[in-house]
Amino acid sequence: MLIGGSWVDADERIDVIHPYDGERVGSVPMATEGQATEAVDAAAAAFDASTLSAYERYELLSTAAREVEERADEIARILTSEQGKPLPDARGEVDRAVQTLDLSAEQAKRMFGEYVPMDAQRGFAKDHCFTQREPLGVVAAITPFNFPLNLMVHKVGPALAAGNSVVGKPASNTPLTAVALFECLEAAADAIDASVPDGLINLVTGSGSTVGDVFLEHDAVEAISFTGSTPVGKYLAANSGMTEVTLELGGNDPTIVWSDTDIEQAAAQVVGGACSNAGQVCNSVERVLVPEDIEDEVVAALVDAAESLTVGDPFEAGTEVSSMVDDDQFETVVDLFESTVDAGATVECGGRYGGDLGPRTFEPTVLSGVTPEMPAAREETFGPLVPVITVEDFDDAIREANNTNYGLEAGLFTQDIDRAKRAADEIDAGGVNINTVSGFRADHMPYGGFKDSGVGKEGIKYAVEHFSRAKLVGFHQGFNA
Ligand code: NAP
What is the dihedral of CA 157, 159, 163, 168, to 10 degrees? Predict the structure, then answer.
């Protein structure tokens, strides 16, 4: 753990396991409550001591991007070893993280306030007011297992860009990538000419509830940025008092495939969007909504696309779908699959799991005849299932898209501009993507769900708004004018 500028250990350690074969790939310290408190104390002291200008913060973050770039292949291997995504996908995540750091570096130079035309109100013609943006202080960043590098960068990058200090806390099953990232941040801090106070950048590993409670209770933590499951997000929201909280939570995202689209191409994207990272993506396609009259054609195209995916060892060339991150995740998917089949859904392809596929591996699986109340339609699956639900007409499609407590992202394939416009207006989700799947994300776009999918937005510029505050400065009529 990186606390106050030193790498420190703890009495207990957490083993990190390779999801595909269950081999131990490393271990990290299990922070005590005292160590998590020390990390926040160090961050608070460093925030007070820091004099980094916008340009110096730009240098820090862009140098960190170069450090990550230089270690890209090694970091991708660490990522695959602990998370289990195929190596080319891990390499893709590293490339995105480099860009997220570069975008954050640029954003450090764009901490704009605004001039307020005071004469808009009667009697204030002689007053001049503007806002200036200031950092908050200590930002705590808690991340999930599924994108252990880029999601940490999405918090640490904007937090540092805005002039805060940070304490990162990665998921306990995928902490090693975060350790590599913080080594890169530390190397960047040492490399730039400006003096970066020890403790500006801290990393603690260990139990989410222990570290999370320290973040909730420590007065110096001004913001908690959390990505993870909805129950933990709700716990943080309920206990955070006056602390700024950003919550990027779960989803049960719909993608509508309408009759006027190219069904084969749409189906290929849907399967990609449902099975990428073995379905462990917050905005993966969780429900495919299709009109009854094209159901057979869509299902056949989905089956072709799903059967073309290569399942196997994430380190082997050509593998496109590999293991779930751990036994819990795997068993959740198995339960949702079995109970949905028991409820009457038809397995159109796939449906095999475990055994010779690998202990935590589930084949890409297309299910037809799924109805809205079946478990795979109701819950966030977080596995490579493609449940197809039929709808009567477009009204029904919109109704069904909204038939969930979640509201992260949605997708619609159509050539009809009126349907596209209706979906954009009427689907209750943080993003509506026309002619692609719900799983679309670029790192600089505003990203964050409605309803149980969260509060606030990420996407560098938008995260910076959460990690900074506007102070009003007023100049008023002097005595000598
Ligand atoms: P999780 O179990 O909620 O864990 C996420 C993080 O929270 C981990 O670092 C975990 O630490 C920590 N944590 C656990 N209990 C905590 C507590 N009481 N207080 C504070 N922190 C606590 O989620 P996950 O299984 O890793 O990730 C999957 C979920 O994340 C899915 O629901 C997915 O949709 C969501 N997700 C959302 C987005 C988005 O942008 N909306 C992106 C990716 C994932 P430990 O590992 O030590 O328990």
Answer: -90
Q: pLDDT tens for residues 103-150?
A: 999 999 999 999 999 999 999 999 999 999 999 999 999 999 999 999
Provide the greatest CA pair distance for the chain.
86
Q: How many CB atoms lie within 10 A of CB 445?
A: 14
**Is the CB–ligand 1 distance for residue 171 below 6 Å?**
yes
CB 59 within 8 A of CB 51: no
Token digits of residue 467: 């990690």
The alpha carbon of 172 and the centre of ligand 1 are apart by a number of angstroms equal to 10
Q: How far apart are the first and last CA of the chain?
A: 58
- Give me the half-sphere count of Cα atoms (radius 13 Å) on the Cβ side of residue 334: 16
Using a 10 angstrom Cβ sphere, with 0-12 exposed, 13-18 middle and 19 or more buried, the burial of residue 471 is exposed
d(CA 176, CA 148): 9
Does the CB atom of residue 178 touch ligand 1 within 6 A? no
CA 402 / ligand 1 centre spacing (Å): 24
Residue with tokens 């013609």: 125
Distance CA 460, CA 462 (A): 5
